[in-house]
Amino acid sequence: MAENPLRPPNQLYYGDNLEVLRRHLDDASVDLVYLDPPFNSNASYNVLFAERDGTQAASQIKAFEDTWKWDESAARACVEMIEAGGKVSEAMQAFRAFLGDSDMMAYLAMMAPRLVELQRVLKPTGSLYLHCDPTASHYLKMLLDSVFGAGNFLNEVIWYYRGAGTPRMERARRHDVIFWYAKQESAHYFNPDPIRRPYADATVERFSHDIGNIRDGKDFGPQQLNPLGKHPDDVITHIQPIAPSAKARLGYPTQKPEELLEDIIGSSSREHDVVLDPFCGCGTTIAAAQKLGRQWIGIDVTNLAITLIRSRLTDAFAGTVEYEVIGEPVSLPDAEALAASDPYQFQWWALGLVGARPVEQKKGADKGIDGRIYFHEGPGQTKQIIFSVKAGKLHAPYVRDLRGVLDREQAEISVLISLEDPTGPMKTEAASAGFYTSPWGKHARLQIVTIEDLLAGRGIDRPPIQASVTFKRAPKAKAQGAEPQPLDFMPDSDEPF
Prior knowledge:
By secondary structure, the protein is α/β, with parallel strands linked by helices. The chain has 3 domains: about 10-195 and about 230-325, 3-Layer(aba) Sandwich (Rossmann fold); about 195-230, no CATH class; about 335-455, 3-Layer(aba) Sandwich (Dna-directed Rna Polymerases I, Ii, And Iii 27 Kd Polypeptide, Chain: A, domain 1). It is about 30% helix and about 25% strand. It has 14 helices and 20 strands. The protein has helices at about 15-25, 70-85, 85-100, 105-120, 135-150, 200-205, 260-270, 285-290, 305-315, 330-340, 345-355, 395-410, 425-430, 450-455; strands at about 10-15, 30-35, 45-50, 55-65, 120-130, 155-160, 175-180, 215, 220, 235, 275, 295-300, 325, 355-360, 370-380, 380-390, 415-420, 435-440, 440-445, 445-450. The strands form 5 sheets. The chain has a 9-stranded mixed β-sheet, sandwiched between helices. The chain has a 5-stranded mixed β-sheet with strand order 14-15-16-17-20, sandwiched between helices. The protein has a two-stranded antiparallel sheet with strand order 3-4. The longest helix is centred in the first third of the chain and has 19 residues, at about 105-120.
């Protein structure tokens, strides 16, 4: 793919990451890859949203299912990797001989071509961090060896964390695994200085006296502590998962702490380097890369994630980040195609156009509501706008039904978003709902807007959302200098202990 000189340095892609990698990313164009893919955990993960007061809502919607089944698609992916030849082919044949046509084999068939593409897009000086858990880590390690070459394996980083509750297992799991590979082991970039940490008190005390270093009868002279700090270990213990009540918690499942990504990005990339996350979820990698002055590329297969990332970047960086969203509908035919292929993704995308939060999709549970926006008129005066999204044929009863929902929910404004233009009687029915008067003026209580209107920049008539509680707000990014702050005492890469 030829580089577009007019394209902003940061890109956010909506779509299947395999297709995006193959169609849009050049060979050797990325400095660092971090991926936190599904773990084959056989679980469903939900997104939680903010309630009227900004706290986490009880309602939720499913973000993704981490469940893999051997089917025709998995079989095709497996055969494609086997027929490609080389070490990956040998690995996939061995896996299939051992695992058979199993769920785990389906998971590995999904991961294999993506790892091949990620190796392709890395620069010779680049490296890749794959975040996983013990569910499939042993298979992923062998798969990574086949893709990158066993000699390019750099380390297995263990993220150790505390946890609450009584474990259901004999031993509670308190760690994740992060595999670290280089494109070329002899060329990869790594700088420990940005992530050095203070010495232990016992080490500081020991080095307060002159310590010699005699090895094999040779005196290497007095030993000193590195003034910048201790060389990082391959066990990370000082970073903890985000607490459920923490301000940083955005309600997205599997959200990782920003500090963990700052550790990886700060040490394995330079300022202005390109950082890629092909499973970017709620955008933690993107936020960390932006804070550290890197360029970034994020890819996710759900419009829900794309909308959440947009909200996060706005909250954290006050709307100053320049980026392009690629793959979302930009025309009416695009929108119609998305609605035909995946109605839920269409619905989430349409709601994202107006900044609305989706409502949990359970049969009979939405009560005619697909999305909400909460807004403030003043202290303790939180109001709501409700949304209904229609992708098919527009019928007059939809408008009457929405008016009934508007009254039942005691909402201030209701909006029907449709692909089709409303008829004259529908407009008349909507107008009969009257107006809602806010401190900012009068607003129609029942509005009908088309996707074409929204794509053309014609939004809904509503009060300004000065402090939205639609999504759980991301904290503002703290300024961070390029250089770490020196500490009084800290260790060296060649320290003897």
